[in-house]
Amino acid sequence: MPDPGQMYKNIGKTVISEKRIRAKVSQLAEKISQEHQNSEVTLVSNLKGSFRFVSDLASRLTIPVRIDFISFRSYVGTKRKDSKVRIEKDLDLDIHGKDVILVEDIVDTGLTLNHIIRYFEEFKKPRTIKVCALLNKPSRRLVPVQMDYIGFEVPDKFLIGYGLDHEEYFRELNNIAEYKTRQK
Ligand code: PRP
């Protein structure tokens, strides 16, 4: 069982401040709004990590927007080809013929997004699918992923806050910080 009291002592230095996150989210929302003028978008947030990002992003858009949530998790086996995805919650909205933006807090190996995009293309038939990720960790990529809107490129460190968790804690933090793991 995790000891939350101890865990909160392991919050390391801030990697991205609340102010920088706010500025970046506004910038991304402006770009998305400009590129979808006279149109609308459906933001699809993959739970749980992106709940803060999608909320802030949507509130700054200046075009009509629908929001939906999915929960897809990927698991990597001993070999890359062993990777699997589990759909824990599918879409509620119909996205057939719609412009969809998948919203992620972080893209790491790329496996989760890769599965979601393939699944949507095969079964949901949106008009377009774009990806908006607050954080990109390219050093960990196992499969290529098309990224249309990226907030920050981050190093291969254990990050928490603004939706990102460790053992389900720290999602509430307003900044993104390093978590001091014991190995280091
Ligand atoms: C994180 C993140 C992405 C995924 C990215 O989710 O929110 O969905 O991992 O990793 P990948 O590029 O290696 O597939 P996580 O499984 O930690 O669940 P959570 O969002 O509920 O925290």
Structural key phrases:
single chain, 184 residues, alpha/beta, 6-stranded mixed beta sheet, 3-stranded antiparallel beta sheet, 4 helices, 9 strands, binds 1-O-pyrophosphono-5-O-phosphono-alpha-D-ribofuranose
Task: Explain the overall architecture.
The chain has 4 helices and 9 strands, in the order αβαβαβββαββββ. With 184 residues, the chain is of the alpha/beta class. The strands form 2 sheets. It has a 6-stranded mixed β-sheet, with helices on both faces. Strands 1-9-8 form a 3-stranded antiparallel β-sheet, covered by helices on one side. It is globular. The two termini are 21 Å apart. 28% of the residues are buried. The mean pLDDT is 94. It binds 1-O-pyrophosphono-5-O-phosphono-alpha-D-ribofuranose (PRP).
Topology (SSEs and partners):
Blueprint (H helix, E strand, L loop, with lengths): L3 H4 L3 E6 L1 H18 L5 E6 L4 H10 L4 E11 L8 E6 L9 E9 L3 H13 L4 E9 L12 E5 L5 E2 L15 E4 L5
Parallel strand pairs: 2-3, 2-5, 5-6, 6-7
Antiparallel strand pairs: 1-9, 3-4, 8-9
The structure holds 1-O-pyrophosphono-5-O-phosphono-alpha-D-ribofuranose (PRP).
The site of 1-O-pyrophosphono-5-O-phosphono-alpha-D-ribofuranose has 16 residues, from strand 3, strand 5 and helix 4.
